[in-house]
Amino acid sequence: MRLLAYLMVMLLSHTAVGQIFDPPPLDPNPLLEGTLHTRGAPMVVPTDSGDTDSADTLVPQNIAFSKQRFKTPAVAREKTRVAVLGYHNFSETKGVTRMLMRTSELRSQMERIRQSDYSVISMQEFLEWRFGTRLLPEKCVLITLDDGWRSVYTDAYPIFKEYGYPFHLFLYTSYLSGQGDSMTPDMIKEMQKDGASVGSHSATHPYPSDWKSVQNKGEEAYEAMIDKEIGATRPQLEKMFGTVNTYCYPGGYNDATMQKKLPEYGYAAAFTVLPGKVDSQENPLCIDRYMILGTDSSVFEDAMDFTTASISEGPATGYTPGALPRNTPRPTFQVTPAPDSTVPTTLPTISANLSNVPDIDMSTVSMRVSGFGYVPHKVNRTERTVQWTAPCRIYMPLLSVHISWKTTDGTTHRAAWSFFIDRTVTAD
What we know:
It is built from 9 helices and 19 strands. The longest helix is centred in the middle third of the chain and has 14 residues, at about 150-165. Helix content is about 20%, strand content about 20%. It is an alpha/beta fold.
């Protein structure tokens, strides 16, 4: 079998031109022969336009893919979608919380995946697919686990090992002592022998309020915190566990400054806590992830639903995700963007003015957006408006918005509309 090597280019959002990333180490799984990639292949370095789409054209055209674990044939890159699952803590006896789920429930979910036609992929396979050097099946699942809870080793690891599923650990370095409920480095190294890989989750797991507090002290203090929490953790983790090239935002909090510095530190990808299927044009520094909760099984159900949130048309029905049935009535209230309009931005703000809706209970208003699921919209009860702004660039050409609410008599009402994204926009 030929010797395989990989080229990997990271498109740098708002960063200097010319930075090229080394590829992750080779996967031990066999690859198809006849797909040689050479480090010396000519590369074109993208400009700092922020257009992550152009990265797809910068990789060799011969694409390799692994045959192991894949239940269905590989498809063209743009046809693949990935549900990234995020877990935390497990127990069969402790009280269930949002972050702690029953171990038996995890097993049931893994069995659900086993009985489906979805393929569980490793983080390396995910990155190679996103950066153009690997083909994957149409429907894939990537398993990630945050923080480094000991129950990952005692409860989850035996299940993943039994099912043969690779998994990715996002660890924060101050929680690797083995004290309390944390894992030891040796536990993690043992799991690496059975499909575990490692990414950074910061040094101390600062929450959004912690980041904002330091940010208020000025740019110098804020960048120093980013250097400590994000930059310094990668070499620390690599000394213990080998290659680390992914980052997970604690609490999902991220901004342009973080995204600019991540590639400088050597990270190829970063993950959020916003739900949605990942496609081949996903911003690699703002990757969607379904956070699976111990108290709400609906998030896992949404993750397992591959009938929505794709940029390509279904092969049989021609259904375009984001599209609404033709007989869907337009909202009777003012909405932005307007129905069927095209917005010249990939960071749209979506809003609805419900002031003319009689007897509405504003505490019951919810908003869903195709590709994102339920979104954390802002409610102004005085003006009776709801608003949400996309946290990262959107690459789907068509979005649908679904708003529901109850009136004071307890009746549920719904409204929906769709609009188009001008994907030729190169900067926002």
